[in-house]
């Protein structure tokens, strides 16, 4: 019903045309004013200072006036034809849009009915039908509606795999078939989001509501451009497969992974470029799998991992460059993960580890270069695990030495040049 109301509102807006009489009067007045302006400009240009009012009206002048009169009448007729043709074109366009919307609505209803089928094969057909409808949608609102339905399907609860026990073989096969439907949606979203914005079948700039979804398959956003819209994985669970943002460009919009849980699989931002927008992983939990920002370039975005909990798995910032923007690990807890910042380059922007707690696992800043910007460890706590700045260069990050204390606790390795002179 909401879909039909939205389509009807769009059609009504397309048909808001002025009445013919009003349009003709306005057009004629505009033409007269333009003609008067041109005539006055010519008078000034040719420097006519006086007009002889005593001159007699001869035949040639009379003939010229008659021609001018007919010219005015012809021009007015052309204006009338132009206005009528414009209105006809607008009405035809509105009718075509209305017909396209009607057909889209019928196909939409049929596709949604297929998604509710008991047959996994029929559901799969509905998924492809909705993706095709999004590609052919008459406007962006209808395209977004189709995408919203596909995302909503992923948010539906599903029965876990009962296992390969012969007693549950039928349920296991049905689980695999329905998982195929879900994985197809994940694949289609990635395929369409990688297409350049403005081209056919591109979904870039559209919103993706994947909150609380279980991601157990592959999503390929590699090379995509995030310049608008919101991709929301808030509260999602990543338990398998790979969500690939490698070499993607973040120049606007938001990628939201707040409170997401990564217990398996991989989320990769390898060689991604962060020049604008926001990537939000606040309060995310890494208990397994891999998060990679290897060789990523941070020059303007806000990347937030504040209050994130790293209790397992691996996080890579190897070779990343921080030259602008803001990256925050404030109040994050490192209790069991392996986090690599080796060979990272800190030359600008702001990188915060304020109030972070290092109590377990391994965190490596080996061979990192601190040459500019603000890197802060104010009030961080080092109580266990291994934290190494071996062979790092440049000045010690702000607050690091005070947070580590003297002597440095076991497991904390600092370059000799950073240690106080005895």
> What general outline do the C-alpha atoms trace?
flat
Provide the β-strand percentage band.
15-25%
**Uncertain ranges:** 1-15
Percent in helix: 25-40%
The radius of gyration over CA amounts to: 33 Å
Largest sheet: 15 strands, parallel
Compact overview of the structure:
This protein is 38% helix and 25% strand. The chain is of the alpha/beta class.
Which helices and strands, and how do they pair?
Elements: H1 2-14, H2 20-46, H3 59-115, H4 120-136, H5 140-155, H6 169-193, E1 208-209, E2 214-215, E3 219-220, E4 225-232, E5 237-238, E6 242-244, E7 249-256, E8 261-262, E9 266-268, E10 273-280, E11 285-292, E12 297-304, E13 309-316, E14 321-328, E15 333-334, E16 338-340, E17 345-352, E18 357-358, E19 362-364, E20 369-370, E21 374-376, E22 381-382, E23 386-388, E24 393-394, H7 400-404, E25 412-413
Parallel strand pairs: 1-4, 2-5, 3-6, 4-7, 5-8, 6-9, 7-10, 8-11, 9-11, 10-12, 11-13, 12-14, 13-15, 13-16, 14-17, 15-18, 16-19, 17-20, 17-21, 18-22, 19-23, 20-24, 23-25
Helix pairs in contact: 1-3, 2-3, 3-4, 4-5, 4-6
Folded structure, characterized:
By secondary structure, this protein is of the alpha/beta class. It is built from seven helices and 25 strands. The chain has helices spanning 2-14, 20-46, 59-115, 120-136, 140-155, 169-193, 400-404; strands spanning 208-209, 214-215, 219-220, 225-232, 237-238, 242-244, 249-256, 261-262, 266-268, 273-280, 285-292, 297-304, 309-316, 321-328, 333-334, 338-340, 345-352, 357-358, 362-364, 369-370, 374-376, 381-382, 386-388, 393-394, 412-413. It has a 15-stranded parallel β-sheet that branches. It is flat, with a radius of gyration of 33 Å.
């Amino acid at each position: 019903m909401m879909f039909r109301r939205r389509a009807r509102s769009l059609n009504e807006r397309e048909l808001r045309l002025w009445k013919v009489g009003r349009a003709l009067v306005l057009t004629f007045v505009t033409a007269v004013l333009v003609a008067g302006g041109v005539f006055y400009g010519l008078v000034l240009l040719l420097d006519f200072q006086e007009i002889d009012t005593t001159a007699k009206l001869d035949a040639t002048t009379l003939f010229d006036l008659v021609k001018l009169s007919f010219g005015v009448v012809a021009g007015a007729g052309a204006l009338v034809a132009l206005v009528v043709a414009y209105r006809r074109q607008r009405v035809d366009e509105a009718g075509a849009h209305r017909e396209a919307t009607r057909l889209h609505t019928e196909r939409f209803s049929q596709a949604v009915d297929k998604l509710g089928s008991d047959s996994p094969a029929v559901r799969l057909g509905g998924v492809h039908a909705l993706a095709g409808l999004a590609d052919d949608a008459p406007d962006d609102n209808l395209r977004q509606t189709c995408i919203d339905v596909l995302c909503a399907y992923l948010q539906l609860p599903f029965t876990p795999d009962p296992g390969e026990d012969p007693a549950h073989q039928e349920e296991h096969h049905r689980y695999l078939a329905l998982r195929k439907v879900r994985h197809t949606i994940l694949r289609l979203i990635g395929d369409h989001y990688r297409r350049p914005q403005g081209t056919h079948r591109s979904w870039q700039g559209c919103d993706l509501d994947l909150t609380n979804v279980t991601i157990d398959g592959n999503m390929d956003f590699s090379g995509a451009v995030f310049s608008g819209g919101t991709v929301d994985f808030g509260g999602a669970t990543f338990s398998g497969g790979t969500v690939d943002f490698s070499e993607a460009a973040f120049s606007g919009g938001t990628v939201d992974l707040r409170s997401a849980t990564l217990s398996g699989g991989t989320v990769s931002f390898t060689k991604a470029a962060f020049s604008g927008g926001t990537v939000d992983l606040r309060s995310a939990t890494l208990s397994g799998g891999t998060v990679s920002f290897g060789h990523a370039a941070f020059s303007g975005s806000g990347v937030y991992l504040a209050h994130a909990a790293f209790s397992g798995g691996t996080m890579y910032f190897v070779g990343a460059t921080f030259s602008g923007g803001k990256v925050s690990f404030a109040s994050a807890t490192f209790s069991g993960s392996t986090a690599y910042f080796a060979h990272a380059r800190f030359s600008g922007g702001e990188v915060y580890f304020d109030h972070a707690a290092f109590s377990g696992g391994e965190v490596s800043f080996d061979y990192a270069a601190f040459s500019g910007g603000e890197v802060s460890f104010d009030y961080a706590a080092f109580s266990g695990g291994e934290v190494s700045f071996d062979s790092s260069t440049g000045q010690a990050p702000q607050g690091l030495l005070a947070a580590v204390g003297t002597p440095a606790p076991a497991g904390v390795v600092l370059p000799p040049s950073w240690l106080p002179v005895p």
